[in-house]
Amino acid sequence: GQYVLFLVDVEMPGMDGFTFIERTRSEPDLRDVPSILVTSRNSAEDQRHGREVGARDYIVKSEFDQGLLLERIRELVA
Length: 78
Prior knowledge:
Layout: E1 6-9, H1 17-25, E2 35-39, H2 44-53, E3 57-60, H3 66-77
Parallel strand pairs: 1-2, 2-3
């Protein structure tokens, strides 16, 4: 199958979201699939790291707004 978007939590068992995105970016068939990181971690360093690995957006759970998430997803998969 083909993917149109990865919605990834930063803190996952076995592999964190940063690593997941780094690995998908290294795969020719997956490198153009946009990724959004979702996390409770809101430090500037974590957000910078998310951008560096290739996340197209970084959503902090404490600031979660469903409408904004859906809007961002529509923009990325259009």
